């Protein structure tokens, strides 16, 4: 055992040090792949985890939550729950989503809780803080008047802010603003002035980070925000010894049918489920970088085998068995995989910091307010990263180990050449490649809805497999085709380059594959982005027809955030500049465990002015006219796909007036949210939900009225005290594009990593080729080849390699783009996109990669030119 | 243009020095550092090779044969002394000039053939001409003639990697003769071949060089080869021990 280990150490590990450069390259390949995967996954995980952490932090120890979301609970419910006071702490809560300072200030939440009785904040509120230390100072004032202190707790003008959030809000003040003890919080369309009282973070140290929450007592909250008699939810914390499940059943029995009692994280869990598709999409893309890293490792390990061929041959002659030979190469792969995995996790942690801002912004844009926490490296992430490193190195080592096992004893004595003309299984490779491409095409032609899960992965893998397998035959064909022109144009370097390329096609095609994969990945991802851009641009152009949009300033992300009174409708409609007004309400609802949106607008206005693209291409106007005063609904495409809804089916919704069925009239295209919409007419919504608030006003101006005049008139009409945002359609469309760019910003980073790894692969391959051909190059120099001729031959070889990689990469990229757009996107988000090819971007990138590949080939070429001619004379 | 030097009068020990020399080594020494010490690979060697002459360099491993061959082949520079090839003092040449000079003047046959396995026999034979900037059908015709001369006319279009060892070395002979050099240097040309192949390669090499009046220097351990040479130069510890 010990002897075997010593042998492995001497023969397997020492060469690692001897070829430190190549070992480092392999390590980097594995680490880069692992780092991208871990980094993006950590960022997504941190962003997504913030929902349940925030929910848990706000809920404290409560294990149950009674709510009637999206509606309020009557405060009188507390009376009905009085019998349970002995069994549990009941913690009534109100919530207001706010922005600090101004429209674009930091977003935070104001919770109305019982500051004296609520166990979650009791320990954090110093009794005299309000009276004695209005800001800046924390802690109780010894010897203060207790009555003054208690009165301060009920002061509607004092907001209790955990110190970390207070620091964030202070840091978020507009530049130039003076430091102050006060803050303006914009809630809905109204500004509220508060004095800040700093408090210690409530128990559960993550609270202020995961959930930027400030506190008001319940009564002042109800008074200031006009919520008298209402509660948003009641958290329930069972006393010790009380079984939560039986308590839940008992409370549920006392509640009205549509009031729910469930764990506080339930909404967060639903959101996290929804985000699963986004995460899956990111994972699929980052897995691809792992594949490219694997190719780099494969390439380097193969170089090791080819360079150590003589050694292996000698060892075989001296009696080394196949197992030892496999172990020698395997140990290198294993160690590099292990170290690469560790390095990848550490790099991934750093990468996650950068990706976090992008990912959490996207999550906020597309799903719900997210306050990401610092990426956390758990034991699970470590295990995953290191396993990925070892697994990718093991896969990468498979081919080189097989190559090593083919080395025959004493073959060096016969001067057999590793680059001797190879016979390869081109027909078999092409056959499998064709089968993989056919599978990808079939999946593109037969896309299914959301939730199929693996079809996108299978399709992407099939597309990339097709490209990878076709790499060698394709490269050989390109080199053969290029032989004649190269002979004519650059003989003898061109002749040598073409011949060498064909001879070394097996090794060079690994780099061709690395290059084609990264280019295909870039192409595929760029197709997805371009398809989104083109489709959403066309959709926004045709559907966003109102001239102006009025929303509350406090809205930070979700269209359901912040409301405006219905009374503005008449005021706005009476303006001489305005032709029509649509009052649109958006609320969050749960349908079968999916959190989606309920939208209610004036379908008559939409039928007159707007355009709603239906999936079945029917004209929407006649259908829209049937909506008023009828339990009929339209559903958006992502929701229809996820819930398998279709026109003619019925959809049941819980409402304050009971559970009602709504007939589905049509499915419409919508790219504003993958959570999905159910659309009712406003008349039906008001009748069934008893809610007249408005989330967005859409104004249609009379012909010839400038938008600026319309916006000024609208602001005057709602009154100077209301903080609204009036946006014209062009700005909305630009915002849609901005959101899209942010959504896909992560893909830019992936593209860069993929391209860098591919170029490293080109460099590695050519460097290894030069090393294995030293004597051959020496002979070439001895019989009269100039340095320039040697450099030119190597560069031409690199050019052939790059050209093949890019050409096949473009074909593979088209296939991958089709899979990403028609299968993975549809499966993840439910959107139908028109496939658009990113010609300009990919052409620029192709030129850049081509030049970069030549530059990557320069160092090996220069090394080759420096090989002394006497090298040919040296005896083996 | 390489500068031709006045050839120094041949030294007495150079038996073949009655005719003008194609290669002349005048008190050449070569040393290099290795492991903190200086290795004297050649010491004060003088040697003259006449046009068309076949010289066998014999000696044990490490006796300096390959170093001498490297100096004659302009692949290395002496530490002291002069090397004149075809009347040109090669130490003074720039690397580019040396490259062209070597391509036109010297042919090589290596022990391990050093053919390009992915080029055909014809392409291998034509390579020195292509590298020298020549092209067109003349080059192909010349390469075919040479391959025919070494008995490989029918295998001209076969990849070198698919030829047998003896065939490969015959292609290497054709390649060495392609640019019509005045001097061919062969380093153990039959060292990697069986007896039958060794015989046919040696026959091709000597016959073709004699026909063309090309000088041939063969570094070898083989007494059989040494016997077909016009002259036998024995090397011992970096010095010329005897010449006959």
Structure description:
- Helix content of chain A is 58%, strand content 15%.
- Chain A starts with a helix and ends in an 11-residue tail after the last helix.
- Chain A is an alpha+beta fold and 876 residues long.
- About 3% of the residues of chain A have low confidence.
- With 244 residues, chain B is of the alpha/beta class.
- A six-stranded mixed β-sheet of chain B has the order 6-7-8-3-9-10, sandwiched between helices.
- In chain B, α3 crosses α4, α3 runs parallel beside α5 and α5 runs parallel beside α6.
- Chain B is globular, with a radius of gyration of 18 Å.
- Chains A and B meet through α17 and α27 of A and α1, α2 and α3 of B.
Topology (elements, then pairings):
The complex is a heterodimer of chains A (876) and B (244).
Chain A (H helix, E strand, L loop, with lengths): L1 H17 L1 H40 L4 E4 L5 E2 L2 H4 L7 E13 L6 E7 L5 H4 L6 H4 L13 H8 L4 E5 H9 L10 E6 L2 E10 L7 H4 L2 E5 H7 L5 E2 L1 E6 L5 H11 L5 E3 L3 H42 L1 H9 L4 H45 L12 H28 L19 H20 L9 H36 L2 H11 L1 H39 L4 E5 L15 H6 L4 E14 L2 E8 L1 H7 L11 H6 L5 E5 H7 L6 E6 L2 E11 L8 E5 H8 L6 E6 L5 H12 L5 E5 H15 L1 H28 L1 H9 L4 H42 L10 H27 L11
Parallel strand pairs in A: 4-8, 5-7, 14-18, 15-17
Antiparallel strand pairs in A: 1-10, 1-11, 2-9, 3-4, 3-6, 3-10, 6-7, 12-19, 12-20, 13-14, 13-19, 15-18, 16-17
Chain B lengths: L22 E12 L2 E13 L4 E5 L6 H8 L7 E6 L2 E2 L5 H11 E4 L11 H11 L5 H13 L15 H14 L4 E5 L7 H18 L2 E6 L2 H6 L2 E6 L2 E5 L1
Parallel strand pairs in B: 3-8, 3-9, 6-7, 7-8
Antiparallel strand pairs in B: 1-2, 1-4, 4-5, 9-10
Helix pairs in contact in B: 3-4, 3-5, 4-5, 5-6
